[in-house]
Design a protein that fits this description.
This protein is an alpha/beta fold and 211 residues long. A 7-stranded mixed β-sheet has the order 3-2-1-4-5-6-7, sandwiched between helices. Strands 8-9 form a two-stranded antiparallel sheet. Helix 2 links the parallel strand 2 and strand 3. The longest helix is centred in the last third of the chain and has 23 residues. The two termini are 32 Å apart. The chain binds 5-O-phosphono-beta-D-ribofuranosylamine. The site of 5-O-phosphono-beta-D-ribofuranosylamine has 13 residues, from helix 1, strand 5 and helix 6.
Length: 211
């Protein structure tokens, strides 16, 4: 199988991008990062990409009058690099329905909560405020809804009584790094969507564990 071609879209730190990169280096993931894109200049994720010798592109959304204009220029770059998957890793821009349609089932996002709980911003703070005992992260396909597309992988973490947003976020982030690699590993095989479910062919072949 040829390596999956990944375009990473980020807006900041880029630790999920780094985790995916490192998994590729360790040969745990048969993929290559063909683009790291940011809508914000001067972010750590772009410096990391440059220092790793990866193609890095920035289109500052503040220089565009419309979302469509920004996405049109992003699409031109994507057409040049032909990604299999667009990997949103802390990309803080909503994608328009037209963009989602164009890349249907090829855009992934990671969210720091167990969806459908706590979509949107400040998911860790929402989880603490609600008082849940378990939270985690979700890798999902992106559709037109906010954090509502089909789930690919979820990983859970405990929520402790003395947690702050910072401590809970750190615990979740550790699992995010694993979840994204696991999701991409799974998506490198054969899969399909049934209703809201992402079904992986490999798992269907495996005998049920209790047999
Ligand atoms: C992560 O918590 C992710 O779940 C959220 O944004 C954060 C990005 O972190 N969507 P990083 O830039 O990958 O370090």
């Amino acid at each position: 199988m040829p390596p999956m071609r990944l375009a990473i879209l980020l807006s900041g730190r880029g630790s999920n991008f780094r985790a995916i990169h490192d998994a590729i280096e360790r040969r745990e993931l048969n993929a290559e990062i063909i683009l790291v894109f940011s809508n914000r200049p001067d972010v750590a994720g772009i410096s990391t990409a440059e220092s790793l010798g990866l193609r890095a592109e920035v289109l500052d959304h503040r220089n565009y009058r419309t979302r469509a204009g920004h996405e049109a220029d992003l699409s031109k770059i994507l057409e040049e690099v032909c990604p299999d998957y667009l990997v949103l890793a802390g990309y803080m821009r909503l994608l328009s329905p037209a963009f989602v349609e164009r890349y249907r089932n090829r855009v992934l996002n990671i969210h720091p909560a167990l969806l459908p709980s706590f979509p949107g911003v400040d998911a860790q703070a929402q989880a603490l405020a609600y008082g849940v005992k378990v939270s985690g992260c979700t890798v999902h396909l992106v559709d037109e809804s906010l954090d509502g597309g089909p789930v690919v992988v979820q990983r859970e973490v405990p929520v402790h009584d003395d947690d702050t947003v910072a401590t809970l976020s750190d615990r979740i982030l550790e699992q995010e790094h694993r979840a994204y690699v696991e999701a991409l590993q799974k998506l490198s095989g054969t899969w399909r969507i049934e209703g809201r479910r992402v079904v992986f062919a490999e798992e269907e072949k495996a005998p049920a564990r209790f047999l």
